[in-house]
Design brief:
It is built from 8 helices and 6 strands. The chain is α/β, with parallel strands linked by helices. The protein has 2 domains: 37 residues, no CATH class; 186 residues, Rossmann fold, CATH 3.40.50. The two termini are 28 Å apart. It binds zinc ion (ZN) (2 copies).
């Protein structure tokens, strides 16, 4: 697996560029070694705006889910449309892992601007079941979490949550989806007493997955769970 490219440049990245040319994760064009994506793709991405609810992460214009989620705050980098959608789908099914660097960087900046970043004690990716992990080779939620905490002192904790074998196709609407999500996720024995935990995933749909995981983290002692999704559906 090619590791996600960070920008920040430096001689090491410059040298890497000579052998492994840097490509835009959205359009695959060659880009300078110190860039995360090309300007055109960045500008055409449907980055989230003031219509994203800061609590549930859904659009306040359409389907705000406040009161139905167990987490405390949520940031989402972009809307699930256009090239952000395409990049997230590739992240799930192919090895377009460098898109995680773009989303991670945008999310980290959002958390910084809101004054949340400094209060985070641990970053936790929404876990995948190991069968999915061995098929894909990586957990895309973990790639995003890793990019958010890059160059910070926040520890990445992949040891706190785990996931059961996904159940066969379900009519994932409302309560049924929430219950299905709650059944799939579990916590390991750990004390998160007093901690603010960042929970990261690629796509926010109903909030059921974040809610199920946040619920577990709070039962482990976390006082506040802040969610971060690359895209919000
Ligand atoms: Zn591009
Ligand atoms: Zn809301």
């Amino acid at each position: 697996m090619r590791p996600p490219l960070s920008n920040g440049g430096g001689m090491k990245m410059f040298l890497a560029d000579l052998f492994l040319p840097n490509r835009c994760p959205f359009c695959d064009a060659f880009i300078p070694y110190d860039r995360l994506c090309c300007d055109g793709c960045f500008d055409s991405c449907a980055w989230s705006d003031e219509n994203i609810c800061p609590v549930c992460g859904k659009s306040v214009m359409r389907e705000c889910r406040c009161g139905k989620v167990t987490y405390d705050e949520c940031v989402a980098a972009a809307y699930y449309t256009g090239n952000a959608k395409a990049a997230v789908i590739r992240l799930k099914f192919m090895d377009g892992v460098s898109a995680a660097a773009v989303f991670g960087r945008v999310l980290r900046d959002m958390l910084k601007v809101r004054g949340i970043l400094d209060s985070i004690d641990a970053a936790v990716p929404v876990p995948m079941h190991r069968s999915g992990l061995s098929a894909r080779g990586y957990n895309q939620a973990e790639l995003i979490a890793r990019e958010i905490v890059r160059d910070t002192d926040i520890p990445l904790r992949t040891d706190l949550l785990y996931r059961d074998e996904p159940q066969t196709a379900q009519h994932d609407l409302g309560l049924e989806e929430r219950m299905a999500a709650a059944l799939q996720y579990h916590g390991r024995d750990a004390d998160l007493g007093g901690m603010t935990v960042l929970l990261a995933d690629d796509v926010l749909t109903t909030g059921a997955t974040f809610s199920a995981c946040a619920d577990i983290l709070k039962r482990m002692g976390a006082v506040r769970v802040v969610c971060a999704a690359a895209v919000t559906a």
